[in-house]
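Design job #97: recover the sequence.
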C-alpha cells in the first residue's frame, strides 16, 4: 500500500482548526515577548496558556500534522495545541458532536473501550468511546512480559476486552507533546526509555511506535520524518501565561510563561533528593521560585489582582515547604526501607520550576488500588509466582514493562507546567480538577491543609 500523503498541510490541520485553533490562536503579548510571532495563546478556565516554539513559526508541513498512517490520524490528532498538547474531554466531546463520532481520534484500534466495538451509529459510538469522552483515556494493550514475576490470575472487565490472561487493556491519558526537554522518562510507564537510551532516541522510538500503532501505518516512517517530528516537539514550551484575576504571570518580576521556561536549565539528576545529582549539589526543597518577586503582594490589598498574586505566592511556598510524612509510596518508602519519610511536595516534584522528577523514579501512590476503582475501570488480580501473594489493580503500570512485582502500580510523575489547560489529571484521569488533585494529596498523606491553604495551592498550580 502507498502511504497516505494526499492531504495537504491545510487539510491535515482542518481538524485542529475545527477544534478551536483557528479561533483561539494568536500572536501573544506576554513574557516581554509581544513581538514574537512564534508564541501561541489559548484561553482556559484559569486564564490563558501559551506555547513558545523555539524553532520558529509553526510549520504545518511538519509530519507532526500529517497523516502517515492508514486511519487519517496524525500526531496532532491526540496532541492538540489548544488542549495543552494533549486532549481533554471537553475538546473530545466537541469533536464527537461536530463529526458524529467519526473524527479520526475516534478509531477502535485504541480509542474505543474495546477493539471491535459497535460503531454503527452515533449512539453506539458514544458508548464505545465513553472513556475517551469522559476522561480522555486511550486504551493501551500490553502483554505480560516473558519471565515476569507475576501472572494475571483473573480480570473483572466491564468491557470484556481480555480474551485471555496474557494481555491487559489499560486506559491512560496521552501525555503532552510539549516541554519534552525536561523529561527523564518517556511514557507513563517509561517503556520508551530503557537504560542507556538518550532522550532523542526515546522520542524517536515513541514517534515510530505511535505512527505504526495509533495511526496504523502500513509503511514505516522515514528517519527524516521521525526526526522532523521530534525536532518540532522538542522546540515546544508550554505554560500558563496569564491568570484571569492575577493578570500576566511574567509581569512585576515574576517568571511565569513559556519563554522563561524555555531558558530553564535542566539535566538528568538536577536537584534530585536521593543524591543522584551528578554535580554533587545538595537537594534544595525550594524548587519553585517563579513568583518570588510577588512576595510583597498583600492579601488585604483593595484590587483583586494583588490579592490573587498573594494567594499564588502562598501556594508556591506551601508547595515548596509544607512538611508532611510520605508513607506507603512504592518506589520510595519500600526502596529506601523507610516506613515514613519527611518531605514536601518537591521531594517528588524536584525539577526546578518544572515539577517532574529529574531522574527515572516511577512511584506507586495507590491510584490503581482496588479501593479507588470506579465502575468504568477493569480490575486485574495479579499473583506473585514466588510468594503466592496477590494484588488487585486497575493498571499494573511499569510492571507490564519490567515484569517486576515491585513495579506494580508505578508511574512517572509528569511535568507540571501548563496544568490549567489539560484536565483531568493523573495517568487515568482520576482527578477532574486541580482542586481534586490537592484534595487527593491532602487526604493521602494526612497533610492537614486548611480550606484556605488548599485554595492557595490550586491558585499556584493553576499559574504554572
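Job complete. Output follows.
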Amino acid at each position: 500500500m502507498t502511504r497516505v500523503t494526499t492531504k495537504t498541510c491545510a487539510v491535515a490541520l482542518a481538524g485542529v482548526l475545527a477544534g478551536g485553533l483557528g479561533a483561539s490562536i494568536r500572536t501573544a503579548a506576554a513574557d516581554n515577548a509581544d513581538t514574537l510571532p512564534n508564541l501561541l495563546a489559548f484561553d482556559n478556565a484559569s486564564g490563558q496558556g501559551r506555547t513558545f516554539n523555539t524553532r520558529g513559526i509553526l510549520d504545518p508541513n511538519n509530519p507532526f500534522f500529517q497523516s502517515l498512517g492508514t486511519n487519517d490520524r496524525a500526531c496532532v490528532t491526540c496532541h492538540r495545541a489548544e488542549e495543552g498538547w494533549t486532549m481533554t474531554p471537553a475538546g473530545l466531546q466537541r469533536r464527537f458532536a461536530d463529526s458524529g463520532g467519526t473524527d479520526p481520534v475516534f478509531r477502535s484500534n485504541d480509542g474505543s473501550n474495546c477493539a471491535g466495538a459497535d460503531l454503527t451509529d452515533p449512539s453506539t459510538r458514544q458508548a464505545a468511546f465513553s472513556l475517551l469522552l469522559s476522561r480522555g483515556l486511550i486504551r493501551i494493550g500490553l502483554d505480560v512480559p516473558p519471565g515476569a514475576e507475576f501472572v494475571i490470575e483473573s480480570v473483572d472487565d466491564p468491557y470484556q476486552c481480555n480474551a485471555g490472561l496474557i494481555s491487559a487493556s489499560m486506559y491512560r491519558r496521552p501525555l503532552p507533546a510539549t516541554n519534552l526537554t525536561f523529561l527523564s522518562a518517556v511514557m507513563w510507564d517509561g517503556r520508551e526509555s530503557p537504560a542507556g537510551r538518550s532522550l532523542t532516541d526515546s522520542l524517536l522510538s515513541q514517534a515510530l511506535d505511535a505512527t505504526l500503532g495509533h495511526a496504523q501505518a502500513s509503511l514505516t516512517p522515514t528517519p527524516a520524518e521521525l526526526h522532523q517530528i521530534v525536532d518540532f516537539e522538542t522546540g515546544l514550551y508550554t505554560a500558563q501565561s496569564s491568570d484571569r484575576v492575577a493578570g500576566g504571570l511574567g509581569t512585576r518580576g515574576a517568571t511565569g510563561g513559556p519563554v522563561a521556561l524555555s531558558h530553564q536549565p535542566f539535566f538528568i539528576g538536577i536537584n534530585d533528593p536521593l543524591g543522584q545529582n551528578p554535580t554533587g549539589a545538595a537537594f534544595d526543597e525550594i524548587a519553585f521560585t517563579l513568583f518570588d518577586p510577588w512576595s510583597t503582594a498583600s492579601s488585604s490589598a483593595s484590587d483583586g489582582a494583588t490579592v490573587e498574586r498573594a494567594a499564588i505566592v502562598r501556594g508556591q511556598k506551601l508547595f515548596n515547604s509544607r512538611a508532611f510524612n510520605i508513607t506507603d509510596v512504592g518506589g520510595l518508602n519500600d526502596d529506601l526501607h523507610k516506613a515514613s519519610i519527611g518531605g514536601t511536595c518537591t521531594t517528588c516534584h524536584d525539577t526546578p520550576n518544572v515539577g517532574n522528577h529529574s531522574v527515572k523514579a516511577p512511584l506507586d501512590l495507590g491510584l490503581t488500588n482496588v479501593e479507588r476503582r470506579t465502575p468504568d475501570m477493569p480490575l486485574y488480580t495479579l499473583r506473585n509466582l514466588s510468594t503466592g501473594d496477590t494484588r488487585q489493580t486497575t493498571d499494573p503500570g511499569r510492571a507490564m514493562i519490567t515484569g517486576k512485582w515491585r513495579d506494580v502500580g508505578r508511574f512517572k510523575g509528569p511535568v507540571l507546567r501548563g496544568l490549567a489547560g489539560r484536565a483531568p489529571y493523573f495517568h487515568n484521569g482520576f482527578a477532574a480538577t486541580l482542586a481534586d488533585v490537592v484534595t487527593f494529596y491532602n487526604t493521602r498523606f494526612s497533610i492537614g491543609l486548611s480550606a484556605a491553604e488548599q485554595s492557595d495551592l490550586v491558585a499556584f498550580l493553576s499559574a504554572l
